């Protein structure tokens, strides 16, 4: 290519009728050679720059792909964190509901425990009272019954009306005032309706109810079986006995 250029230059100079000296010709050839060297260097530099440009483009493409991957990963992590946060908030709300339910259940169990303790105390008191009554009944049964028959009407109890409130209803129950000579206890297992009315001052309906719920092992069963109110029992308990009937 460069030889062709030299020939073309020489032909142009000859056609123009220009006559050059040998030194100028050699100088022109030297300059042409130098130009050829510079042109080759420029070509090599251009090739190197193109190669570097291709490498840079490849690096840019790789970095772009890495950037897209990193962006996708960041987005995934962000979405994962949002999902975990939502899950944790939901779990926290669920645990709070469970805590409230357990707290309510604990309070309910506490109230039931207090109620059970109260019932246990009342049951122990009832058992103690029944044991005392059973002991008194045994002592009373071991005593001989005095002769002379039941006391007279003047020595029986005097009945006075008394109002007792039981839950949602109010009923009248007799208040018995024992006479000074009332010594013989009334056996609630053998006394007739008339005797219960006469000697204890009970109404006929209450006396029939006492007879209907026989037998009684203890005096306190009159209250336990809901035959008479406790207020009436407290008045007559010292004048009655639950001794078993005599065997025939």
Any overview of this molecule?
With 248 residues, the protein is mostly helical. The chain has two domains: 48-143; 147-241, DNA polymerase, domain 1 (Orthogonal Bundle), CATH 1.10.150.320. Helix content is 66%, strand content 9%. The strands form two sheets. The chain has a two-stranded antiparallel ribbon. A hairpin with a 2-residue loop joins strand 1 and strand 2. Helix 3 (193-200) crosses helix 4 (204-212). It is rod-shaped, with a radius of gyration of 63 Å. The chain starts with a helix and ends in a 7-residue tail after the last strand. Residues 147-182 have low confidence and may be disordered.
Question: Characteristics of this structure?
Answer:
248 residues; mainly alpha; DNA polymerase, domain 1; 2 domains; two-stranded antiparallel ribbon; 66% helix
